[in-house]
Amino acid sequence: MPDAAIIDRPRTDWVALADQVGREIAATAARHDEEESFVEEGFRALKAAGFFKALVPAELGGLGADYRDICNAIRRIGTCCGSTALAFSMHSHLVAVPAWRWRHEKAPVEGLLKRVAAEGLVLISTGGNDWLPSNGRAVKVEGGFRVTAKKTFSSACQMGDLLVTSAIHHDGAEGPEVLHFAVPFKAEGVRVIDTWRVLGMRGTGSHDVSLEDVFVPDAAIVARRPPGKWHMLFHHVFVLAFPLVYSAYVGVAEGARDRALDIARAKPKSAALTIAAGRLENAFMAAEMALDRMIAIAEHEAPGPERTNRAAIAHTLAAQAAIETVERAMDLVGGASFYRDLGLERAFRDVQGARFHPLQELPQLELTGRMALGMGIDG
User: Fold this and answer.
1) Which residue of 146, 199, 260, 357 pairs with 329 in a disulfide if CB–CB is 3.0 to 4.6 A?
2) Regarding the domain delimited by 232-372, which CATH topology (the fold level of the hierarchy) does it fall under?
3) E strand or H helix at 19, and its extent?
4) Which helix (H) or strand (E) element contains residue 62?
5) Which CATH architecture has domain 127-225?
């Protein structure tokens, strides 16, 4: 049982803290986009405010934040700096999943969570690129494995402490298996490769990370699964991770909407202007509704294929509506939206990233179609 001090701890207003961080970093967002440099100020401000240990249960030394509160906080940060919000969401989901498993499944993950709280660790994800198949090779050696792999889209790796990743072990008695583990960035053979030259979300610092014959001890292996198949771990990851991630994109859309409406209110009113504003509001409400549904599914529904399918549908709808919201914002403002100084051009580029996180639209449609036809979740 948690002690009385934990029970009586005042509730933190994470959204208000996020607004404070957003005000601190808003002026740096355009510079990081222009320079293609990592949003270090944003990460340092978030760390100072306690965000990196927010989702660690209070019983394990964290701040015991409500999952929805952190989604809403990421959305607020996204209105000011999409890159800071998105990069932070990647750390957040790597805390949210083990925290959920610790509380609901009594999974033995308290060691990692206690370290995040006590040491202020920044966790770096490679799961989006690896997804169900994974990549890289793990070779069994005495006491562990030697791993060689190249991991892309490793957001915030410049400030990372642990790389949470996977690789394929091909020598198992029952065929190839995916091994899940974390390795310190300081480990021998771990190297960041400067590759992040991209359309949008330029400040996330999502460079490649190379693992060159990196030793991973047996004790570091936290899960094993067959490659290419849905495993319960991935049902957890998909449903809990993407409301956090898409909160960043809906935040970008919200920031574009607010900016466009501010500009439009000063324009001469016409039927075309009011209709354009109405279309913008419809698109934004669709984004809000889809995100709210994603969060509610993560909060309340039982893990498994049906929940994953519903989350995948909401994931696609949130992505589509966030992108449309920014497009409608630019329609409302008109040609001025092409100028970088307004920030809408950056929002348009940043929000395009919503297209590319798994499951992308076509794989989602295939999964949902299979489930609707009673064919099961695996192809």
Assistant:
1) 260
2) Butyryl-CoA Dehydrogenase, subunit A; domain 3 (1.20.140)
3) helix 14-35
4) none
5) Beta Barrel (2.40)
